Amino acid sequence: MPAMQRLLFALALAAAACSPAPSGDAPSHPTARGSSSSSGGGAFASNTSVIFAGDKALELTEPCSRPPPAHEGTWTPSEAEIAAMEPALAALVDEQLRAQWPNADDMSVADYHRQYGGLIVDGRRIIYVNGFRLGQYDDLEAWRSFPHTICDGGPIMFGVEYDPASQQFENFAFNGVA
Asked: Which of 122, 130, 131, 124 is nearest to 163 (CA)?
């Protein structure tokens, strides 16, 4: 075996030896935003969500081609509230994607990023979700500070309201199509 192949083989063995063995036990609850799982619908990829605190959430209320949420004020959802919601959100996104866009076989829940904001709607605290897929020309970090908005795009973007008290989603909508 040539020296280069031996070196690569030795490096591969060392890397395998340093990798943790799979435990076979999945966590019973999400451990961080974006690392949740759901039954059947897939899961969001890690590190693909952000919470817009307080009045910053108002920036999420101006989507281009879907109805905006009505609101009377803002609040800041906790990471625990987001983590508790995400498995059901992933299942909902998958369900809506399959129902409304059955030919979108190349789309997966794991492709979506989420921006969360707390809004007061009809006197209730809701979590507004601005969900989207980043495109190849999108700024890969700007979405963490600024609302991600495009016009049209169909299944590329969605919005939904979640009531943590009732654990119910309302007003799910993908963007329109030009």
From this structure: 124
Structure tokens at 20: 């943790």
Domain boundaries defined on the chain: 3-174
Strands (E), the chain: 49-52, 73-75, 112-121, 124-133, 157-163, 168-174
The residue among 169 and 64 whose pLDDT is bigger is: 169
Length of the chain in terms of residues written: 178
Instruction: Report the pLDDT value the prediction gives residue 156, as an integer from 0 to 100.
Output: 84
Backbone region of residue 24 per phi and psi (left: phi > 0; alpha: psi in -120 to 50; beta: other values): left
What single DSSP character describes residue 68?
Answer: P
Instruction: Give the Cβ contact number of residue 161 at 10 Å.
Output: 20
For the chain, percent of residues with pLDDT exceeding 70: 75
pLDDT digits (tens, 9 = 90+) for 77-122: 999 999 999 999 999 999 999 899 888 777 889 989 999 999 999 9
Kindly state the tokens that stand for 122: 């009809």
How far CA 13 is from CA of 2, 10, 131, 149, 152, in Å, comes to 17, 5, 41, 46, 49
Q: Which amino acid is at 53?
A: A
